[in-house]
Queue: 2 jobs
Job 1
Amino acid sequence: MLNRILAIIRREYLERVRTKAFWISTLLVPFFLGAVMILPAYLAARGGGEFSVAVVDLSGRFFDPIRDEIDRLLAGDDEKLSVTLVRQDPGPDPVATRERLKNEVQNKRFDGVLVIPATMPDEGQPEYVAPNVAAFKLLNVLERSVNSVMVADRLTGAGLDPDQVRELTHRVGLKTLKLGKGGEETRDQGQSFMLAYIFVMIIYMTVLMYGIYVMRGVLEEKSSHVVEVIISTVKPFELMLGKILGIGAVGLTQFLIWSVLMAAVSAPGMVSAMGMGDIGLPTIPVQLLVFFVVYFVLGFLLYGTLYAGVGAAFDTEQEAQNFQGLVTMLLIVPMVLMIQIINQPDGTLAVVLSLFPFFTPMLMFLRLTLVPVPAWQVAASVVLMVAAILACTWIVAKIYRVGILMHGSKPKLKDLVRWVREA
């Protein structure tokens, strides 16, 4: 029996690993991760760019204070962002001036137009008109500068000293430090969230992808009647188990390659060696990579078994869509719950949902990337998943044994229940 299962595993594994698609997808994912994790940080570290903004100050008294405030902010916060304000005469017709400047923005003379109403700071609202209103650093500097100048003007009108008020109300930033199990502190500015999101998405996509591979493999052999020849030498259970383990080994190979690459890139000194020393990438602990592989293996075995049963019960993928959708829905639900878990990874809801076997691969691993999870919860999740895999294998094996040779009729749920009872 073991030799036959190993032969099926070897066949399924080599059939897929030898394809160009496998190696292309294996190499593309690291590039994708690099683009998501390194490129934004690299661009942010390389500065915010140079901007020229035309200013129409209808009040005639705020241009200089706003320019001085912008210079003060850039000198203290972000030397790599350059903002040049160009004073514009409103003329006898401010509306016409505004339209003329819009044309000049479209002709690339200016990056945008800032209009200060004559009624400021008591009434009205400043306007910034530009083709790109997603330049968040620029918009933040403009908004903070205009706001500071308007508040200072109001304070002066009330008889207060704006400089003294600014000193007393000076903003204090929050330094976020992630606390580890051993009490160690590491700087975290959102890297944990980014790491958690990317890793969970990889588990979700690969479990779904390889689970569907199992289903399609069964459907192809069944529709071509190849399976009728195969089961003359092996038992249906052996065929199902070999197919699941063989395709799972393909996914595991990819995961091991990705894990090694991620560990290498996140190693201390690697970013500096690549010439990007001022980029702060999250360090990926080895134990996290181990859990990354463990929860993929368990998740694939659980869902791969279910997809194998769906493939055996139907003749075509179109016929299997309803039941395939139910299995896929079990994978989608934890993705919908991600934000709730991220907000309270140690909450009761997070703990309960992460222990539900069909949600565990994504949600328990998500919690592990965010906070120290008690060892008993990790152990319980693994035990419950193993129990669920054994239970699903027992049920699906009965469906597989009957359905693999069934043709012509589209079974309903009651038929599947009958197969489980009678097999």
Job 2
Amino acid sequence: MERRRLGRLGHDSSVLIYGAAALADVSQDVADASVQQALDAGINHFDVAADYGDAELRLGPWMPRIRDQIFLATKTGRRDAESAWREINASLQRLQTDQVDLLQLHAIGDLDELDKATGSGGALEGAVRAQEEGLVAAVGITGHGHEAPATHLEALRRHPFATVLTPLNIALSRDPSYVAAYEALADEVARQDAGLMIIKTVARRNWESGTASDNRYATWYEPLDEQRLVTATVSWVLAHREITGLATPGDVRLLPLVVQAEAHRVDPDAAADLLGAEPAYSSPFLDMPI
């Protein structure tokens, strides 16, 4: 699997980042099979969060065996320093490790959330404390929604985050204002030599049903699940050389499709044409769950 340098952190990360949200509500046996599948495919970057159900607990038993072989990232969704500090320590216990390579401020998708996290007494202070005490090696930021790229650009003006995890796919690229915000963010990421990672690559649209029990997958959005379409969207995103990697979607059943897509990429223009003709393909942020 291709690897790309994760900005100034210097890690050669696999271009597929294991999205451990897929482990939020599965058994340990299912989790073990998925993690092994990822390792066998060449994935060396694992991304989890305290808010992902049991995901940290499912990854924890693997750490004594693979901790020195992977880049391990987690996230805190708390907004004040003290609760973020406590959550970071709890994550380390669940993950059975004494340090993560990256701690990300989770779900910072608009300026209100950014103000809470980066203001006086905010979660950023807890994250920096954890970094100073050696619990985390670096601090990054993530977020969903149409305002995420502009919000993350402002975040980089306030603090030198080592990484940014922001949304991008072909559907979002049809919005000129979104593209302008993404390009401005990418320019600033390059200037600061941060790592730029992508989420929602495989999103198709919002679920049509209003109840999670009717959904075919564990993802909060409806994903693309045909190989030709997954290959198209993965190919298009990875054609952006400023991107260091994309997070795999939050359902273990989708991982093989994404692995296959990375290995057999197609021309990005042909990929855009293919998905451009796909019915009901749209932004997953039109009606996000609360």
